Amino acid sequence: MRKKIVLKSMLTAAMAMSVLFSAVGTNTAFAAGGEIVSFNITADLICKEYSNGLPKDLDKDLGDKIVIVSTNDIHGAVNDLTYVSQLRNRLKEKNANVLLVDSGDFSTDKKTVENYDGKKSDDAGFCASNTEGIAPVKIMNAVGYDYGCLGNHEFERGKANATAIIKAIKHKIVDANLESSGNSTELAKRAIANVDGVKIGFFGLDSLENHAWYPNFDYKVNKDAKALHNTARTQVNELKKEGADIVIGLTHLGVDDEPANWATKDSDKVKNAIKPNTNDKKVNKYDYLYPEGIRSVDLFADVDGIDLLLDGHSHTTMTGSEYFKDVNVQSNGIWLRNIGVVVIGNTNGKYEIEQRFLIPEEYYDKIGEDPKITDYINYVIKASETPMTAEEAMKSIEDYDPNKDYSADSSKTSRKSKQEKASAADDSSSIEASLPENELEATEAASSASIENEDAANTASSEDEANIEESTEETSSDDSSNEKSNDKSGKTGDHHRERHHHRNYKHGFGG
């Protein structure tokens, strides 16, 4: 493990030197949702310069590149999937081969996100909740995802619902540590995308924090950390045997302190941990890497042959670690706060990850929307206004037809750009400042009453909510079983130790 972490690095000079990606400093946190993340994460690969609707470095012919666009923990933010679709369109216009992947928790809403003033699930009419997860799946199918893993919240509503979600998904699901007991849908453990002769291997892993859930859905899982690592090791080896040029894990493991405690509370495991080579006095056992840990960073450090983990679960915006430069783990936060990009190319006769970075949401207007997908999303949101079962949603929400005009069937929701929203806020402040005091008080009173009525309605409502060629894949059992805090993309804050952790989920777990 020590040898692996010293020798392995996929960060090329181009990635480290590019003027497009600004470093945001050390000891910063980009987690959302209130999870405590004491592990030293960084998000220093952030794209801030754009040209013709693309990251500036990609505004060129990309005929010899494979670009992976990634998401995770969408949690109801389906409106922003139009930008994912348009990014893919623009990349294809530059002749790139594009793969869309997701790392789980796509089928459930999240009403609020700590330290964030948006309400993306609300903006989408809580369509995930109203359709028991089918609405976001229909939209993801329309966008055209290729591969993904499941998240723990796909296992939230019951076996019949989980089965309906899995069957509704059109992209390949890979989850190597979830084994069907015979009464559930078989899940592939790995898959290979053969892109013009280049083989990109994917394997999937789901969180062990929620290991007690899975048997209720007729999936067996070994909760031992060694088994998790051995499962990953087996999949990597098999993908290599099948000729994979690049191996990427689609994982829903996370990096927060809750899963870290599986190792940090064991003195023997702490003794065997890799400690960061730093004089930073803030370092403690949460910053170590554990050969028997269940976080994504622990797994990456312990298992050879993985080029990159595209992770989810802890709602963390990260591209790596300041202490461990060779830990190639990337995650986009929650609610599509970022879109991940991975560029694969041929370097000296070998296919490698040449660049990887995040596109923060404040730059989505640079990319623009996919008009047809926007219309379809609005159609789905409108069709999901009345709560229904998954089976009813499957029948009543039609699958996307690229030849159909959905504008007439959509709610025609106004989708203001971030600049328009900021301008509207400035105008509102200006009008408020010009009002006489008595008029201002009357306005505030009316606004307060309106908000109270809306909150009451929301409370009442919430009470009711309960052309890539694939190669071989394995479906049988494996042999082995922060002082300051600011979550907004591009901003810094000293997170290290003092993040507030709230896990306000139905089953008492986060992610």
Q: How far is it from the N-terminal to the C-terminal residue, by CA?
A: 27 Å
The overall pLDDT, averaged over residues, is 80
| Major β-sheet annotation | 7 strands, mixed
The helical percent reads 25-40%
Strand order of the largest sheet: 13-14-12-11-9-8-17
Number of helices: 16
Q: How many E-type strands?
A: 17
Mind telling me the C-alpha Rg? 22 Å
**Low-confidence spans:** 6-19, 21-31, 414-511
What is the 3D shape?
A: globular
Characteristics of this structure?
6-stranded mixed β-sheet; 511 residues; single chain
Would you mind describing this structure in some detail?
It contains 16 helices and 17 strands. It has 511 residues and is of the alpha/beta class. The strands form four sheets. Strands 13-14-12-11-9-8-17 form a seven-stranded mixed beta sheet, covered by helices on one side. β8 (190-195) and β9 (198-206) form a beta hairpin. α6 (134-143) packs antiparallel against α13 (371-383). Mean pLDDT is 80; it is low at 6-19, 21-31 and 414-511.
